[in-house]
Design a protein that fits this description.
The protein is α/β, with parallel strands linked by helices. It contains eleven helices and eleven strands. The longest helix has 19 residues. The radius of gyration is 18 Å and the shape is globular.
C-alpha cells in the first residue's frame, strides 16, 4: 500500500528557525504558495492521483480560491494547524484554540467537515497523548502525525508499527497513518518524504519502498521549488534538509508517481472499520 499527501504550506514555513517561527513574521516573505501548489496539482492530474492536502489554515485564509481549486480537483482537505507550532512549543489550551480555528477556516472555505489532521513537524510523542485526545474531541477521525523513529522536531521511536493502526484514548479513537522508516540491523532510515526523499538517490528509494508493505509518502510545495529564496542563519542540518536536491526533485516525484499505485486516506471511518487494524491504547496523562 502506498499513500500520498501534501503539506500545503509556503517555502518559509521551515521549523526550528527563530526568524520564521510566528505568523507575524511570515508577512515579510515572498508568497510562492500558489505557483508551487499549481505545479503539484498539474502533476497529480497528469497521473490521475487524488490525495489529501494537509492545509496550514493561515495559508488558507490568504488563498481560499486555491483551497477551493484543490477540492474541485477531487482532493481531500485536512488541517495542518493554523500557526504551524510544534506541539512541544504550545500548551494544550492554546493547541485546542489553534485546532478549532484551523478547522473553522477550512470547513468554511470547503463547506465540508474536516476530519483529517497532521501535526507540524510530526511533533508527536508519548508526552502529548492529551493533544491526541483533543483531536478526537474536535471531530478528527484520521491522523498522520506519528513518525515511527527519532526526528529533530519529534518522532515516536517507541511505536514500531509497519502499517496504519487505531489509537484508542479516553476520549475515543482515531485511525493513524504513520510515517514508517526503512528498518534493518537495528537502524531506522526515514525516506518517504520531504528532505529525505530529495536526499536519497532514486535506486535506494526504490529499494526501501519495495521492501515495505506500506509506505506513507509526504511532500511540501517547496520540495519542488528550485527558485525559492534561501533563508539566512539556518542550522547546517536544516539547511541541508531544506535545499538538497531541489533541482532534481520534480523529476524524481514524477518517476515515483509513474511507478506505484496510490491510495488516498479514507474520508470516513466506515471504510476503515471493514479493515482489521491493530489497536494501541494511550491513556490520558492529565491528572
Amino acid at each position: 500500500m502506498h499513500y500520498l499527501s501534501i503539506d500545503l504550506e509556503d517555502w518559509f514555513h521551515i521549523l526550528g528557525n527563530p526568524t520564521t517561527k510566528f505568523p507575524h513574521q511570515w508577512i515579510h516573505f515572498e508568497d510562492r504558495l500558489v505557483i508551487n501548489a499549481d505545479r503539484i496539482l498539474k502533476i497529480l492530474d497528469k497521473y490521475q492521483i487524488k490525495t489529501t492536502f494537509f492545509v496550514l489554515a493561515w495559508c488558507a485564509e490568504r488563498h481560499p480560491r486555491l483551497v477551493k481549486e484543490i477540492v474541485d480537483a477531487g482532493h481531500t482537505i485536512g488541517t495542518h494547524s493554523y500557526a504551524h507550532q510544534l506541539w512541544q512549543d504550545i500548551s494544550l489550551p492554546d493547541f485546542r484554540t489553534d485546532l478549532m480555528k484551523s478547522i473553522d477556516i477550512l470547513s468554511t472555505i470547503t463547506g465540508k467537515p474536516v476530519i483529517h489532521h497532521r501535526a507540524p513537524g510530526f511533533s508527536v510523542n508519548a508526552k502529548f497523548v492529551d493533544y491526541l485526545s483533543c483531536l478526537i474531541e474536535q471531530g478528527i477521525q484520521i491522523d498522520s502525525s506519528i513518525f515511527c523513529t527519532w526526528k529533530v522536531n519529534g518522532g515516536w521511536k517507541e511505536i514500531q508499527k509497519t502499517k496504519p493502526f487505531i489509537i484508542k484514548t479516553d476520549s475515543g479513537s482515531l485511525v493513524e497513518f504513520p510515517i514508517v522508516p526503512y528498518r534493518k540491523f537495528g537502524c531506522s532510515l526515514p525516506f518517504s518524504g520531504g528532505g529525505y526523499f530529495r536526499l536519497w538517490p532514486r535506486f535506494l528509494l526504490q529499494y526501501f519502498s519495495k521492501s515495505a508493505h506500506y509506505v506513507n509518502w509526504y511532500f511540501h510545495p517547496r520540495d519542488f521549488d528550485a527558485q525559492q529564496p534561501l533563508l539566512k542563519d539556518l542550522k547546517s542540518y536544516r539547511k541541508l534538509m531544506s535545499y538538497v536536491g531541489l533541482s532534481r526533485s520534480e523529476k524524481k516525484f514524477e518517476n515515483l508517481l509513474s511507478n506505484y499505485s496510490f491510495e488516498n486516506y479514507p474520508n470516513d471511518l466506515a471504510k476503515i472499520n471493514r479493515i482489521n487494524l491493530e489497536e494501541l491504547y494511550l491513556p490520558s496523562i492529565v491528572d
